Amino acid sequence: MMWKEKYKIGVSLIDQQHEELFQRVSEFIKVVQSKGDWELRLAKVKETMSFMQEYVVFHFDAEEEYQKEINYPEAEGHKIAHKQFKEAVGKYAARLETEGFNEELVQEFSGKLMTWLIMHVAGTDTKIGDYVQRQGGDA
Ligand SMILES: [Fe+2]
């Protein structure tokens, strides 16, 4: 999974954070799908899991803050989408803790994470950029 120019919403702070997220998720997927001893790959998997949990919250907060600043009319709905995303990541994190970091579950999670991220950035976040443009402002 690669970061694509078309995912840019035109707000540089958010675009930079999105790019970072995509890079991390794609690294994560590479490690999850690579061959070799699972135990050896596990350290990277765990590191990415904790990064994702922290960075997703940091990024969502920044994005929500920006929406407030620009009086974005769909901010409430967007916040709900973020909450659901965080909950979904949190559920997997909890399952991985209780069920153990087995390869199959991590693979399932990495696939979902990629889908959620693309859907959210391409489907929901791009609307922020559209709004800024409609307002005639520079994002
Ligand atoms: Fe968002």
As for the number of domains, it is 1
**Largest sheet entry:** none
> Hey, roughly how much beta strand do the residues contain?
under 5%
Shape: elongated
- What is the string of helix and strand elements? HHHH
Uncertain spans: none
> Structural class of the secondary elements?
mainly alpha
Plain-language structure description:
The protein is an all-alpha fold. The protein has a single domain (12-129), classed as Four Helix Bundle (Hemerythrin (Met), subunit A), CATH 1.20.120.50. It has four helices and no strands. The chain has helices at residues 12-33, 38-69, 75-99, 103-134. Helix 1 packs antiparallel against helix 2 (38-69), helix 1 (12-33) packs antiparallel against helix 4 (103-134) and helix 2 packs antiparallel against helix 3 (75-99). The longest helix is centred in the middle third of the chain and has 32 residues, at 38-69. The relative contact order is 0.17. It binds fe (ii) ion (FE2). Residues 63, 78, 82, 120, 124-125 line the site of fe (ii) ion (FE2). This is Hemerythrin family protein. Belongs to the hemerythrin family. Residues 10-128 form the Hemerythrin-like domain. It comes from Alkalicella caledoniensis. GO terms for molecular function: metal ion binding.
